[in-house]
Design brief:
Layout lengths: L14 E2 L1 E8 L9 E7 L23 E2 H9 L5 E5 L9 H9 L3 E6 L11 E4 L9 H6 L2 E6 L4 H9 L8 E5 L4 H14 L3 E3 L3 H5 L3
Parallel strand pairs: 3-5, 5-6, 6-7, 7-8, 8-9, 9-10
Antiparallel strand pairs: 1-4, 2-3
Helix pairs in contact: 1-2
């Protein structure tokens, strides 16, 4: 899926196509259970058929928003951590947004498929590689955590190819695709028991019925 973004439209990152922002509990991966303020940006160049945020894919649906508005809302709540997600947030220059949030003393986490060059300052990067559009090499060097979505046992080989490129201290997660979670979970459990370098990530927020 090709997404062309007009960076002039975003004024060097002073404006961004905001889909939604909200305070919730992180439900996945290493930081599961942590309160965090989510900033979700529009636009995606990957297009997973099982994506649960397909409404974010077309950035033209979301007029650019001044990052000062986003920052004011984020800092008005007690969150100590910010998750920047999408869509694919690295479609846009993020230096200004992350710099100003850091200046407010907040931790900044990124959720990315790693398909675009990095911009911004992050305390934690969750890399979630997708088969149809593999990450750039630099994404593995920046990743603090690797999270691979599993639809079937065929995805384990893909997971291992990506794990081989991650740093030796990078935590590894296998996460069942939600629509087939009950079917695939027993297979993931047995795989992780046999390959204990991996952990299981569950979309806990869906069990909590929160965003």
């Amino acid at each position: 899926m090709a997404i062309e973004t007009d960076n002039a439209l975003f004024d060097g990152g002073r404006l961004l196509p905001l889909v939604e922002d909200f305070y919730t509990i992180q439900g996945e991966g290493f930081h599961a259970g942590k309160p965090a303020y989510f900033i979700r940006l529009g636009g995606c160049d990957v297009g997973c058929r099982w994506c649960d945020a397909k409404y974010t894919w077309d950035p033209k649906r979301y007029p650019p928003v001044d990052i000062r508005t986003i920052i004011d809302r984020a800092t008005a709540c007690p969150a100590q951590a910010i998750v920047i997600t999408g869509g694919e947030p690295l479609l846009y220059p993020l230096d200004r947004l992350t710099g100003e949030l850091h200046d407010r003393g907040l931790q900044i986490f990124l959720e990315t498929s790693g398909t675009r060059p990095f911009s911004g300052r992050f305390d934690w990067v969750c890399l979630s590689p997708k088969r149809q559009h593999a990450p750039l090499p630099e994404a593995f060097a920046r990743a603090h955590e690797l999270k691979v979505i599993v639809e079937s046992a065929e995805d384990f080989a893909w997971a291992e190819r990506n794990a081989a490129q991650a740093g030796p201290a990078c935590p590894l997660y296998l996460q069942p695709e939600w629509s087939v979670a009950e079917k695939v979970m027993p297979v993931i459990v047995e795989y992780v028991k046999a390959h204990p370098q991996w952990n299981i990530s569950i979309q806990a927020h869906k069990y909590m019925h929160i965003p």
